[in-house]
TrEMBL record:
It comes from the Bacteria. The keyword Coiled coil does not apply. Its cofactor is pyridoxal 5'-phosphate. It is an enzyme of class 4 (lyase). The lineage of its organism: Bacteria, Bacillati, Bacillota, Bacilli, Bacillales. Its EC number is 4.4.1.2. This is homocysteine desulfhydrase. GO terms for cellular component: cytoplasm. GO terms for molecular function: homocysteine desulfhydrase activity; methionine gamma-lyase activity; pyridoxal phosphate binding; transaminase activity. It comes from Cohnella candidum.
Amino acid sequence: MPTSESDKRHFYTQVSHDSVDTRHHGAISMPVYQSSLFAFETHEKFDEAMKDVLAASVYSRGNNPTVMYLEDKIAQLEGGEAARCFASGMGAIAAVLFALTGTGDHIVCVDQAYGPTRELLVDLSNRFGLEVTFIDGTDTDAFAAAIRPNTKLFYLESPTSGMFEMQDLPAVTKLAKTHGILTAIDNSWATPYFQKPIALGCDLVMHSLTKYFSGHSDTVGGVVVGSRELLGLIGSRSYLNLGAAMAPQTASLITRGLRTLPLRLERHQASALKIAQHLASKPDVVRVNHPGLEQYPQKELADSQLTGYGGLFSFVTRHSVEKMKEWATGLQYFRIGVSWGGYESLVTAGAAPAKFNADGSAPSSVRLYIGIEDPEELIADIDRSWARLKEPSQEAISS
Ligand SMILES: Cc1ncc(COP(=O)(O)O)c(C=O)c1O
């Protein structure tokens, strides 16, 4: 069930409103507790706190009040019982894998998941005896076919952040539950404003907070949200001892970004949709991977799971990779760079994945992130550089 319109309206209240907290002298903005440790008046109180270092503020690799504030806020937005923040999105993803799976366990992962996630899974399987199967996440039957007696986790990312493929979350999570398999999803692309995976059946939700939550391309962070029980396991098995905790300054910056999350997402969504439609009308663009477009192959699923789309999408062209890199370099307002979720538009070009270029007629893929610049100026920029591209048939002749 998609997030209702009233849920979306309430989201604005959730990011803005806090109940009165008298512990911080009435500070309206959560202070930065720039402290590595917390001291106690008596040894008795210290001993009491040491009984559960994951509940009390004892040491900032465990609990820091500035970080805990952000954790509570994100748990609320995702509709989860608890959350843990990490030094990066990959820190959060690694913590889930290390806490919930081990040697001899099997993980089923979508084949278009974020590259470093796939690399980590391959590495864990090569060096620590974890079994991993990558499947086409658009095909729910492929999940069913991949299940083994030792399958512990379905690793999901919907939509994926390169080619924007979706998984049918209610169907896949139902299948997982009937086999006692946990589901963890990377929800960085949609954010809880546009997709609520826990309500759709997922056990754990991860984010790269580096992206929309932070919103200003000035910090790196991650989070895992889920039940108290699972977060307890992650806390004791991987959060505390792997040591990838979020720093309090980072939590403060991400909290500041979170206050305007829905406002920014509406802007990214409106501009990106306009630009995606514009690109879809170009004859040398083979397909635009944007779940909001009518021609998106999983449109019905997108409408049933998402209430919006944000600013990141990709397209596949008939031009060579080299030519699309020249096109990208010729853009004025798009910076060439990884990541997304900030104020600034970004572009990267590369080879289209084999499954999108089966007959060799669609060699290049471009990922665009649409920032908060004027979309008309971005379109003019795209067209100016596009005008310098030759016909794909002429490229081969001149190169
Ligand atoms: C979809 C997705 N998930 C996870 C990550 C990892 O996050 P981080 O860079 O904060 O470690 C990224 C980073 O680009 C991403 O795009």
